[in-house]
Amino acid sequence: MGTHYITDDCITCGSCVPVCPVAAISEGDPIYVIDKDICIECGACDEVCPVDAIKWQGA
Fold first, then answer.
1. Is 57 helix (H, G, I), strand (E, B) or coil?
2. In whole angstroms, what is the distance from residue 24 CA to residue 57 CA?
3. What total of structural domains would you count in the chain?
Protein backbone atom coordinates (compact mmCIF):
# COMPACT_ATOMS: atom_id res chain seq x y z
CA MET A 1 0.00 0.00 0.00
CA GLY A 2 1.18 3.50 -0.72
CA THR A 3 0.39 6.92 0.58
CA HIS A 4 -0.43 10.41 -0.58
CA TYR A 5 1.68 13.26 0.74
CA ILE A 6 1.93 17.02 0.26
CA THR A 7 5.20 18.49 -0.97
CA ASP A 8 6.85 21.80 -0.12
CA ASP A 9 5.24 23.17 -3.29
CA CYS A 10 2.01 23.57 -1.27
CA ILE A 11 0.79 27.18 -1.30
CA THR A 12 -1.59 26.60 1.65
CA CYS A 13 -4.65 27.53 -0.42
CA GLY A 14 -6.79 24.93 1.36
CA SER A 15 -8.54 23.67 -1.77
CA CYS A 16 -7.76 20.06 -0.82
CA VAL A 17 -9.40 20.16 2.62
CA PRO A 18 -13.11 20.28 1.67
CA VAL A 19 -12.83 17.55 -0.98
CA CYS A 20 -11.38 14.92 1.36
CA PRO A 21 -14.24 12.54 2.24
CA VAL A 22 -12.58 11.37 5.45
CA ALA A 23 -11.08 14.66 6.73
CA ALA A 24 -7.51 13.36 6.46
CA ILE A 25 -6.03 16.73 5.48
CA SER A 26 -5.26 19.41 8.01
CA GLU A 27 -3.34 22.64 8.21
CA GLY A 28 0.21 22.02 9.28
CA ASP A 29 3.14 24.32 9.80
CA PRO A 30 4.03 25.58 7.25
CA ILE A 31 2.06 23.40 4.76
CA TYR A 32 -1.01 21.18 4.81
CA VAL A 33 -0.52 17.54 5.80
CA ILE A 34 -2.30 14.28 5.03
CA ASP A 35 -2.85 11.84 7.90
CA LYS A 36 -1.81 8.53 6.33
CA ASP A 37 -3.73 6.56 8.97
CA ILE A 38 -7.00 8.19 7.88
CA CYS A 39 -6.43 8.67 4.13
CA ILE A 40 -8.33 6.20 1.93
CA GLU A 41 -6.28 7.01 -1.20
CA CYS A 42 -9.28 8.21 -3.20
CA GLY A 43 -7.26 10.85 -5.05
CA ALA A 44 -9.84 13.63 -4.72
CA CYS A 45 -7.20 15.98 -3.36
CA ASP A 46 -4.87 15.34 -6.31
CA GLU A 47 -7.46 16.61 -8.73
CA VAL A 48 -8.05 19.97 -7.04
CA CYS A 49 -4.51 21.01 -6.10
CA PRO A 50 -3.71 24.04 -8.29
CA VAL A 51 0.07 23.58 -8.00
CA ASP A 52 0.27 19.77 -8.18
CA ALA A 53 1.74 19.58 -4.68
CA ILE A 54 0.00 16.32 -3.74
CA LYS A 55 1.93 13.23 -4.75
CA TRP A 56 1.56 9.46 -4.47
CA GLN A 57 4.28 7.24 -3.10
CA GLY A 58 3.73 3.55 -3.76
CA ALA A 59 4.86 0.95 -1.29
1. strand
2. 16
3. 1
> Which range of residues forms the domain containing residue 53?
1-59
Would you tell me how many other CB atoms lie within 10 Å of the CB of residue 26? 12
CATH code of 6's domain: 3.30.70.20
Beta-bridged to residue 3, according to DSSP, are 57
CB contact at 8 A, 7 and 57: no
Taking only the tens place, the pLDDT of each residue in 17-39 is 999 999 999 999 999 999 999 99
15: nearest Cα among 41, 47, 44, 48: 48
| 25 SS3 class | strand
Element (H, E) at 26: strand 25-27
Full-model pTM: 0.90
